[in-house]
From TrEMBL, chain A:
<dbReference type="InterPro" id="IPR012255">
    <property type="entry name" value="ETF_b"/>
</dbReference>
<dbReference type="InterPro" id="IPR014729">
    <property type="entry name" value="Rossmann-like_a/b/a_fold"/>
</dbReference>
<feature type="domain" description="Electron transfer flavoprotein alpha/beta-subunit N-terminal">
    <location>
        <begin position="24"/>
        <end position="215"/>
    </location>
</feature>
<keyword id="KW-0813">Transport</keyword>
<dbReference type="Pfam" id="PF01012">
    <property type="entry name" value="ETF"/>
</dbReference>
<dbReference type="GO" id="GO:0005829">
    <property type="term" value="C:cytosol"/>
</dbReference>
<keyword id="KW-0249">Electron transport</keyword>
<comment type="function">
    <text>The electron transfer flavoprotein serves as a specific electron acceptor for other dehydrogenases. It transfers the electrons to the main respiratory chain via ETF-ubiquinone oxidoreductase (ETF dehydrogenase).</text>
</comment>
<comment type="subunit">
    <text>Heterodimer of an alpha and a beta subunit.</text>
</comment>
UniProtKB/TrEMBL annotation, chain B:
<feature type="domain" description="Acyl-CoA dehydrogenase/oxidase N-terminal">
    <location>
        <begin position="7"/>
        <end position="117"/>
    </location>
</feature>
<protein>
    <submittedName>
        <fullName>Acyl-CoA dehydrogenase family protein</fullName>
        <ecNumber>1.-.-.-</ecNumber>
    </submittedName>
</protein>
<dbReference type="InterPro" id="IPR046373">
    <property type="entry name" value="Acyl-CoA_Oxase/DH_mid-dom_sf"/>
</dbReference>
<dbReference type="Pfam" id="PF00441">
    <property type="entry name" value="Acyl-CoA_dh_1"/>
</dbReference>
<dbReference type="InterPro" id="IPR036250">
    <property type="entry name" value="AcylCo_DH-like_C"/>
</dbReference>
<feature type="domain" description="Acyl-CoA dehydrogenase/oxidase C-terminal">
    <location>
        <begin position="238"/>
        <end position="378"/>
    </location>
</feature>
<dbReference type="InterPro" id="IPR006091">
    <property type="entry name" value="Acyl-CoA_Oxase/DH_mid-dom"/>
</dbReference>
<dbReference type="InterPro" id="IPR009075">
    <property type="entry name" value="AcylCo_DH/oxidase_C"/>
</dbReference>
<keyword id="KW-0285">Flavoprotein</keyword>
Amino acid sequence: MTNIVVLVKQVPDTYSERKLSDSDFTLDRESADAVLDEINERAVEEALKITEAGEGEVTVLAVGPDRATDAIRKALSMGAHKAVHVSDPALHGSDVIATAKVIAAAIRRLDSVDLIIAGNASSDGGSGGVPAILAELLGMPQLTHARSVTVEGGTIKVDRETADEGVTHLEAQLPAVVSVTEKINEPRYPSFKGIMAAKKKPVETLTVADLGVDASEVGLDNAWSKVLEAAPKPPREAGQKIEDSGDGGVKIAEFLAAQKLI
Amino acid sequence: MSFVESAERQALRAAAFELASKYGHEYTLKQARSGGKTSEMWAEAGKLGYLGVAVPEEYGGGGGGIGDLAAVCEEFCAAGVPQLLMVVSPAICATVIARYGTERQKQRWLPRFATGELKMAFAITEPDAGSNSHRIATVAHRDGDDWVLNGQKVFISGVDEAEAVLVVGRTEDARTGKLQPALFVVPTDTPGFTARKIEMDIVSPDWQFEIFLDDVRLPADALIGESTDTALLQLFAGLNPERIMGASFSIGIGRLALRKAVDYANTRKVWDVPIGAHQAIQHPLAKAKVELELAKLMTQKAAWLYDSGDDMAAGEAANMAKYAAAEAAVHAVDAAVHTHGGNGLTAEFGLGALVTATRVGRIAPVSREMILNFVAQHSLGLPKSY
């Protein structure tokens, strides 16, 4: 029996043009289509695989504005059992620490959580800090950047892979926090029955006050870091052309190595 | 009244589009040109329940309606992986059996329609009876408890992939002696059943066939329903979904062409701006967008009427939707080809294949002219003209 909480985030579609708002340099949510972050689909997939192989319940947890409901429904349509949605205007502009505090408070309210699965980094904020901070706040072991996860009894084993450090093998006792990378799995498509069932699954909506978190700990004004200035990204530069005069292969290899791709 | 689809319908569209995008138009072209099928995609869609959305829940289906099935059909086409047999197998055959089949027939066939494991073709058109179903010459005679079927059918999609064909024939009414329609499920391995491929200048993984029925002996329960009394109703029950699906098919292909055209117009530069900055390019594409959206709205209305049980009103709307969608798709593809210039007819861009694919929509399942006849007579009250 493994009860799993999956952290999910609604983000602007990676394929659309993403912008910061002019007024406070937070994400301009109106400028792009909002979707469930793809890495979270993988996190949900992993949670479903674990519970399907044994027993347990998958709860998705989202912190975000009202329309994050759509991202939650997507996760529920994939097969997650229920959801908690923390939505509060006071959270606007919260940094990773405030976000992790809110998530920790929401998790403490749940009974018997064995495992928390997150994506390793969101495709919008991209700091990758929440899983580690959350583990510290909850006093749980953290197993980040997992490319594979195995749960056996009360033990979790993870193959951790990063570009700089290569592969390491981690093991911890549950409860624990895991963050997964894109290599973890291929997420399933929601079935039609899953889509129809998602409507009827329970979604608990909470405010910061419901969680007992002080409003002075969250929001843009209380963030530890601040965006002072933002400029649109420069237009894409023309690609680099390599003329092959016998050393084409070497040059391509050098280019890929410089990009840390090989 | 709402013109916006439910959250579930929208989620279904998004999921279907995403699944088909994994395969993509290039996959379809490659399979079609090498004589292959798109069966992996069909199988995956079936497992996810997308092909069985309209099959009743008690038989393992999704319990949704034709509106859901049409949404899936449109999204598959829009993503470049049309599934022609959706128009036939789950839309016509499964609907007819679900509405008019005996309990035994439902239990026998519906669970595998629900999963997509079963493909059933549909055969109505004959060499001498196209739109005129009163001239259908495929006749079933009773022989003891059995039926013996003789006749010929033409332009039947996907017979090579189908386990059985739902054949529209006629039989003698026991009381009046008049010939009246009757629908039979004919397994494709029944002795006396043969099919011959018709070579078409259409790039599609799904093929067209002629069917020959030569003393095809069928058990009593091959006849759909308890008797032939409901056969006309069965035909209407099947043909409205066919038009709605045909419309969705056209709209999806139109969307595919339009998306390709917009991408190309936004990136192709001949002088200093993309060609899409010019009104001569913009206006035909904008017009195509308007026509596709209007056709889609009518298709949604037809599906809604059908799913609400109003077969008569659905008939008019389904005819209009099918007409409008076929025209919109032909115009969209034409504009897309023209936007691409010479590239519009290269194999690489795959738009030439869409010219014939959308042209079919003007002819099948019923010609544009027969729809205008219907509208003139039934919607406007003009004399029957044929």
